[in-house]
Amino acid sequence: MESLRHIIRANKLLFHFAFSLTVIGCLLLGMFLLHLSGFRFHDLRSAFTDCFFFLLCIYVGRWLGVQYLQSKLAVFISYSLVATGGLAILKWVLVRYVFNHSRAGFLELTRDVMPFFLVGLVIGILLKLIRASIQKELNEAHLQSEQRAMEFDLLQSQLSPHFLFNTLNNLYGISIEQHERIPPLLLKLSHLLRYSVYGGKKQMVPLAEELNYIKTYIEFEQIRISDRLVLKTNIAQITDSAIKIAPMVLIVFIENAFKHAKNTIAQKIYIAVDLQLAYGYINFSVVNSYSDEFNQDQAKDEHSGIGLANTLKRLNLLYGNSYELKQHSGNDVYHVQLKLKIIE
Length: 344
What we know:
With 344 residues, the protein is an alpha+beta fold. 67% of the residues lie in helices and 14% in strands. Helix 1 (2-36) packs across helix 2, helix 2 (44-70) packs parallel to helix 4 (106-158) and helix 6 (182-198) packs antiparallel against helix 7. The longest helix is centred in the middle third of the chain and has 53 residues, at 106-158.
């Protein structure tokens, strides 16, 4: 992987070197054609300097293009004014003190070279925006391809036979002694399966819908486990449907919390779920009872961890560097902390 990154960097350097030579060559060719047509350059050094300044303007424009994509309009305008002013000052210093044109006035020189600067800056900005647009389309195509490939794995991890068998066995046991609890359990199970099948196929879903699914799952597990469970939830009320999240991401960590918490000898099992919005991020955490000894056999199962592995792939694919995941165990508890950038 590291060698591949070096190759990509080397190719970028070669591209920029070739691009620079092409721009300078085109400018020099234009100057040569002007010279053949009878135009006389009063200062050859200044003509060569203009070539390099035009190239510099293009690269400054590329940098401004990045700021346009990442910053607000006011910030972009501020950067543009500072960059243009800096180029004008650099040009004036070069003409006056390097080329010894002591009478060159800053305002007059700036007025003469400003159209030249603006053309270079606009070209650079357009090149960056075009490149970003092409890169975005390629990423979206790759994302769709990966999403289709992982749909089956996602459904396999969510609708695992192990989960369904245990659920049906528990429902059978409850139906014998407490048959009045069966209808609400079946209704909740129906909601869970329906959302898993249809919601999991989407790339993004409203956070409010995902939280409703999570609450239904927690209520379902709460009925199954009954008095053994000590549950604490602190989930923010989300009403804005514009806030999106990748489906079936958070539930994997909650499912693991219930699964591992039950694999302990403690009389009571403890699970705490917290979700809040702050500073443009979804802050999600799960804490559950945990025993290394009782969960080692579970880890040896070849199907164990499929859901978590798929979730990590989807997080990397959908969020890139816009998420942070921390997991650790200690003192018979397991902690999961996930920070996701809010998508609207």
